[in-house]
Write a structure and sequence with these properties.
There is one protein chain. By secondary structure, the chain is mainly beta. The chain is 0% helix and 52% strand. It is built from no helices and 24 strands. A four-stranded antiparallel β-sheet has the order 3-4-5-6, with no helix packed on it. A four-stranded antiparallel β-sheet has the order 7-8-9-10, with no helix packed on it. The protein has a four-stranded antiparallel β-sheet with strand order 11-12-13-14, with no helix packed on it. The two termini are 15 Å apart. 39% of the residues are buried.
Length: 295
């Protein structure tokens, strides 16, 4: 973990983990300024990097983190139990594990994204389970083939029974990779797909969808480059509802801003170099500037 000053100067760096292989898949700053990272464990360290404040094992791999105004942390990932179901849970402000829930069916399920809304927790990912739970009247209740994307809302109190759950899939592979709350209501999700009939421009295409509070798809935009594989890696929404997504196309990284109604691309920045670039995440700072990470 490294901390940078507002001007980009490195303040400190530190290592976290155990005696085996460790990886960090998600990072956030909590309400106290402490730094929380998720991977094989959820580890909280002080803002100066000098001390580990808490360490929690959740029985799986953490791939996404979120927080609420009560200083509670939420995580999503994949479980080592229940045949590899999607894992979601909550950690109390004192670092103890409040609850975990397993979402999925009889085959492999993974969550790659999580966010907290005013009325619950939204997780997204992919499933290979033909019995993945969907709710009555969901946007997409039919499991297709390969890996299907999913979006599921549960209570902040946990439990395996969703408020609503829908598949987001075609006749190929689909995966939800990021979720951001829209201040006007609903959510924006980042995904990738190789399913035909989805507006695809290449072999694998990145895309954005706007989702209502009840799980309906309001609009969808494909960001694919012809004859290239494209993957989304992160998404953010500003105070006006405009959507920002970070994606990879071939060896290049792209940052794209989409209008709040999905009707037009406001701008796209291509980050290229002599080698390959890959986006890892995207965020907006307090001034509305875009910050991206990758390699």
């Amino acid at each position: 973990i490294s901390k940078l000053s507002p001007s980009g100067v490195r303040a400190w760096s530190t290592f976290v983990g155990g005696v085996g292989a460790d990886e960090i898949n998600a990072l956030l700053i909590d309400s106290t300024g402490a730094i929380v990272v998720g991977g094989q464990e959820i580890i909280k360290i002080g803002n100066d990097g000098s001390a580990v404040l808490s360490k929690v094992s959740v029985g799986g791999t953490v791939r996404a983190l979120a927080k609420n105004s009560l200083s509670q942390l939420f995580f999503a990932g994949s479980s080592l139990q229940n045949k590899g179901s999607a894992l979601v849970g909550r950690i109390a402000p004192n670092g103890t594990l409040d609850w975990t829930s397993h979402i999925g069916g009889s085959d492999g399920d993974e969550a790659f994204a999580i966010t907290q809304s005013a009325s619950g927790i939204i997780i997204g990912g992919s499933t290979k389970s033909f019995d993945f739970p969907t709710s009555s009247g969901a946007f997409d209740m039919v499991r297709h083939s390969g890996k299907d994307g999913f979006l599921t809302k549960i209570s902040e109190l946990g439990g395996a029974s969703p408020t609503w759950s829908t598949l987001l899939a075609g006749h190929g592979h689909d995966q939800v990779t990021g979720i951001a709350v829209d201040p006007a209501g609903g959510f924006a999700i980042a995904y990738w797909t190789d399913s035909p009939g989805t507006g695809a421009k290449g072999m694998i295409d990145a895309g954005i969808r706007k989702i209502s509070e009840t799980g309906s798809v309001l609009w969808s935009v494909s960001l694919g480059v012809p004859d290239q594989d494209d993957y989304t890696r992160g998404i953010a929404v500003d105070s006006a509802g405009a959507v920002y997504v970070c994606s990879n196309s071939g060896k290049n990284m792209h940052i794209t801003k989409i209008a709040a109604d999905g009707a037009r691309t406001i701008w796209t920045k291509n980050l290229t170099g002599s080698g390959s670039q890959s986006c890892g995440g995207i965020a907006l700072d307090s001034f509305g500037d875009v910050v991206v990470s990758g390699y």
